[in-house]
Design brief:
eight-stranded antiparallel beta sheet, 643 residues, alpha/beta
Length: 643
């Protein structure tokens, strides 16, 4: 209680300071930015495209003073620098130090250049020193988001001005293709310009180490230190260096697809014939997946691919899905509509073989994939969205059938995260597959692959997945790969179709065998500085004022990954601690709560969005039982967050 009061007083002091800064300090920053951008607009040495961007930034700044609350508008843009975390940069596009723009991108890149030139990337590399590049270069890729290509070129400009060579994709490419380029060219680092599945007003900047994996917590902290030393306008180099830009074209894109295809599971003639008869609806959600996903399906022999035309071509405004996240039903609404139309046409024409088997949807940077599967109700085709956990366990089971049981994979291991379904552990245990759990984020799965690689055991890696629709079956990259996921999902559908079974029927078989695991994610949005404060308060409340029971079931265990401690409680609901055990994972702002019946929930702030995420898990004897547990948890936790 004393700690809570102290923190509340600190918060009041912080708000008073913010009010002062909003009135004085932020105005100073605002004027500095305004004057600098004005000078850039009248300069004769500036590219016309950059001048146009500067005019937009200046207009936004000037509009702040005309707003209903100008102080708040200025404060939100300048109260902090856009933060560099474990995922790199991510923020709202616009003017100011707390926005994604050509200046914050250039400053971050200068910090990375300084980090590389100081040799820090070698110290922080997960690779052995013999594998670490001594002549640093950086690979760069970008997706379809607003200003992604501009930010990629600014990034390349700053790096070459610092005598660092650049490998730059000449057209938009998926995030896993960036990871592939880092590894293929033995680069010191990689940079992907994307905000993944965020709304159109966001863009971002993912940073990769020389293993092709997103940088570690330690490396991210060091890079942030280098960035924060810099003056955004005076310390960034833009010209005069000896670095060269080497454009990457179709040849490297095809090499990446070769690596994806090498992970194919199906090679028998009858299954190839089944793939030819597979009918797929695909939407890249106006992102980078259009060409590579269609190309890998073409290589497999999947020729019945129907595109969602409104979402086919790159468009950073995402006009038909404001939140281009394949986790959300709204993003897949058009795709589902196409599936149903085609199914009705096929049924009316007496051609059931043309009814779509699958809907595939990849996010803007094509590292996540969502799917819907055809299932028949009263003899009529309908489409069911699968969760990331359901796809993950089905792919794990499929890879066990095609690679472990066939003897192609010895001493297999699979990797997933602490917030993903425990059903994966049950499947792995039955078939002798070692299951490794990591913190949330695919970089931790990639890190596990690097550990295997350093011990020359990478062949043991079977599969990695996270509940947020990320999958990878090979070691050719160190990030989730929706091109790989598209291939595996189509092969899995063909594998069971050849056996006279739908994916819906196979999933039901798995539930009957292992139990009805139900997982759900609820999230709460907290925009701006006040939202961040509230989110921090809520995490503190979960740690310090946690109830002894939820939905009438005692809390028997908590895991605080920030304190790296697991508390086991007596089962009488009194909250009395029975034992305390250490957690052997890096510190992370995550709280897990386990109830007496084995159901659980895990709370964490998102590292990439202004959201508090709560992951719910239940296991029942029937689907209804699991759903009732989840519904009860949703009610109680929503009340706790909103009170």
């Amino acid at each position: 209680m004393v700690k809570y009061i102290v923190n509340s007083v600190k918060l009041l002091i912080k708000r008073a300071l913010q009010a002062y800064l909003g009135d004085y300090g932020m105005k100073t920053k605002y004027i500095i930015w305004q004057n600098y951008i004005k000078n850039q607009i009248i300069s004769t040495d500036i590219d016309e495209n950059i001048k146009s961007i500067n005019k937009q930034l200046l207009e936004e700044l000037e509009n702040c003073t005309r707003a209903e609350n100008p102080q708040e508008e200025i404060y939100e843009r300048f109260y902090k620098n856009v933060e560099f975390g474990t995922g790199g940069l991510r923020g709202i596009l616009g003017a100011g130090s707390n926005r994604m723009n050509i200046y914050t991108v250039a400053k971050a890149t200068q910090g990375i250049a300084d980090y590389i030139l100081a040799g820090e990337y070698i110290k922080d590399s997960p690779l052995t020193k013999s594998e670490t590049a001594q002549n640093p270069a950086v690979a760069i890729a970008y997706d379809s988001r607003i200003n992604s290509e501009v930010f990629a070129k600014i990034t390349a400009e700053v790096l070459t001005a610092n005598d660092i060579d650049v490998y730059l994709y000449e057209e938009l490419m998926p995030t896993p293709a960036l990871s592939f380029a880092v590894r293929h060219f033995k680069c010191a680092m990689g940079i992907m310009i994307t905000a993944s599945h965020n709304p159109a007003k966001y863009n971002g900047y993912k940073v990769y180490d020389n293993s092709g994996c997103q940088v570690t917590l330690t490396a991210a902290e060091k890079i942030y230190g280098y960035i924060e030393k810099l003056d955004i306008f005076n310390d960034v180099k833009h010209a005069g260096g000896t670095g060269e830009i080497r454009l990457l074209g179709k040849d490297i894109a095809e090499l990446y697809l070769d690596a994806v295809q090498a992970e194919s599971c199906l090679n028998t003639p009858n299954l190839k014939e089944t793939l030819k008869n597979l009918s797929v609806v695909y939407t890249p959600l106006n992102g980078a997946g259009n060409k590579p996903v269609r190309r890998i399906l073409e290589r497999l022999g999947v020729f019945k691919v129907h595109m969602v035309k409104e979402q086919e071509l790159p468009d950073g405004n995402f006009p038909t899905c404001p939140y281009p996240n394949p986790e959300k039903r709204e993003a897949l609404a058009l795709g589902l509509s196409v599936c149903k139309e085609l199914a009705e046409e096929a049924a009316a024409a007496g051609m059931p073989e043309d009814i779509p088997d699958l809907l595939l949807a990849t996010d803007p940077d094509c590292d996540r994939i969502g799917i819907a599967i055809c299932e028949f109700k009263d003899g009529r085709p309908d489409y069911r969205l699968l969760s990331g956990n359901e796809v993950g366990v089905m792919l794990l089971d499929f890879l066990i059938a095609t690679k472990v049981k066939t003897g192609l994979k010895e001493k297999p291991c699979a990797v997933t995260t602490i917030v993903s379904t425990k059903m994966a552990e049950a499947i792995a245990e039955k078939h002798g597959v070692k299951m490794i759990f990591t913190l949330t984020g695919f970089k931790f799965i990639g890190e596990q692959i690097a550990f295997l690689e350093n011990e020359h055991r990478e062949e043991e890696y079977l599969f990695g997945f996270e509940e947020s629709y990320g999958y990878l079956s090979g070691t050719y990259v160190r990030d989730k790969d929706a091109v790989n996921g598209s291939m595996l999902i189509c092969e899995m559908a063909a594998y069971y179709k050849d056996k006279g079974m739908t994916l819906a029927e196979r999933l039901e078989q798995l539930y009957q065998e292992y139990g009805y695991y139900k997982n759900e994610l609820i999230d709460f949005t907290f925009e701006g500085s006040k939202g961040m404060e509230l989110m921090n308060q809520l995490m503190q409340d979960f740690r310090e004022n946690l109830e002894n029971s939820f939905i009438g079931k005692p809390v028997i265990e908590t895991a605080d990954y920030q304190e790296q401690e697991r508390h086991v409680f007596t089962k009488d609901g009194s909250g009395k601690i029975e034992s305390i055990r250490p957690i052997d994972l890096p510190k992370s702002d995550v709280m897990e709560v386990i109830l007496e019946d084995g159901s659980s929930f895990t709370v964490r702030p998102s590292g990439t969005e202004p959201k508090l995420k709560i992951y719910l898990s239940a296991k029942g004897k029937t689907a209804q039982e699991s759903e009732e547990i989840i519904a009860g948890l949703i009610r109680e936790l929503t009340n706790k967050v909103n009170r």
